[in-house]
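Chapter review: from sequence to fold.
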Amino acid sequence: MNIDPILACPMCMSGASGQELMAANTAILLMLGVLFSVLASFIGFIVYLAKRARRFGAETDPAS
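The token string follows.
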């Protein structure tokens, strides 16, 4: 029993070209864009919280 065709995706098996290939590439780029924007937002929020904690910590520090 040959299991190779079962493991391959339809795009690989059909030898997609033209519109199908462009659609698959666009979908991948869209998913990567969403992923990176969510990660960038998360990192930005963490940086914001760190700056805010540092600022409020300096204001309430009696040693300063």
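Two observations follow directly from the output. The first helix runs from residue 4 to 7. Residues 8-60 form one domain.
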